[in-house]
Amino acid sequence: MCQPESQAEYDLRLEWGRAGVEALAARSRGVVIVDVLSFSTAVDIAVGRGAAVLPYGWRDPSAAEFAASRGAILAGDRSAGGYSLSPASLRPIPPGTALVLPSPNGGALSLAAGPGVWTACLRNCRAVADALRRVGGPVAVIPAGERWPDGEARTSAEDLLGAGAVLAELSGRLSPEAAAAVAVFERCRNRLPEILSGCVSGRELVARGFTGDIDLASECDASRTAPVLRGDRFVADRTEAR
Question: What DSSP state is assigned to residue 60?
């Protein structure tokens, strides 16, 4: 008998964070990591420019060693200038660049999910859904969520909306968790800039001066890029529709 947390009777599934990856990834043909503010949006911008993004879990000395071993650039701190998790910082990235992007949420979950992994945000919800349709189901959508200062997991409005945006583009039997995400997205889709700037994660970015990142993240269905994990890096899914 399948465990209830596997949502095995449904084509389209949703669960949060690391526990969601552990519950759903091995039983799904496609896994989608959603970290709207900001890993998934940053990957969409960079890969859409022709760069490759190597996800990494933490910003510590091992990240620099990893980047050096791959001949890649290591993204810096958001406030330091240069390439970083700030999506706006990646708009000028040249094609062919390999960028290591540390992220304890979206990056770490992408590495934990194994093969058949895409990363999605509001910008590329339809493009990722198109790629998933070609792969077939079942599909697991994993909103990354955030962390409280004490390290405890925190669900996030922006990742729930991003997950719902992808699921709304797919056909199949929705788990109740997935259906709830779709309902939230459909209710809120005309207020995305307001919600993203007003949610906890958005207010944190506004306070740090990164309003432009929220503007980019709020642009629903603005991108035709479906970043897929090939080996150690996200690249554009070359089967995506043109």
Answer: S
Q: How far apart are CA 57 and CA 134, in angstroms?
A: 29
Question: What percent of the chain is modeled with pLDDT above 70?
Answer: 97
Burial class (CB in 10 A: 0-12, 13-18, 19+), 18: middle
For residue 109, what are its two tokens?
Answer: 């979950």
Q: DSSP H helical segments within 49-124, as ranges?
A: 61-70, 106-112
Q: What is the largest CA-CA distance in the chain?
A: 52
Distance CA(126)–CA(132), nearest Å, equals 10
Which amino acid is it at 29? R
- Tokens found for residue 33: 């990591």
**Strands 98-102 vs 52-56: parallel, antiparallel or unpaired:** parallel
Per DSSP, 75 falls in state P
- Count the Cβ atoms, other than its own, within 10 Å of residue 4: 9
- Supply the Cα-derived Rg of the chain in whole angstroms: 16
Please answer whether residues 128 and 166 qualify as being in contact, where contact means their C-beta atoms are separated by less than 8 angstroms.
Answer: yes
Looking from the CA of 50 toward its CB, the CA atoms found within 13 Å total 5
Q: What is the pLDDT, as a whole number, of residue 26?
A: 94
Query: DSSP per residue over 199-224, as a string?
Result: SHHHHHHHHTT-HHHHHHHT-TT---
Residue 168 CA to its chain's centroid (Å): 16
Flag whether pLDDT at 144 surpasses 60.
yes
List domains and CATH numbers for the chain.
Answer: 9-225 (3.90.1560.10)
Give the number of other CB atoms < 10 A from CB of residue 101. 30
Q: Give the chain's end-to-end CA distance (angstroms, integer).
A: 42
DSSP 14: E
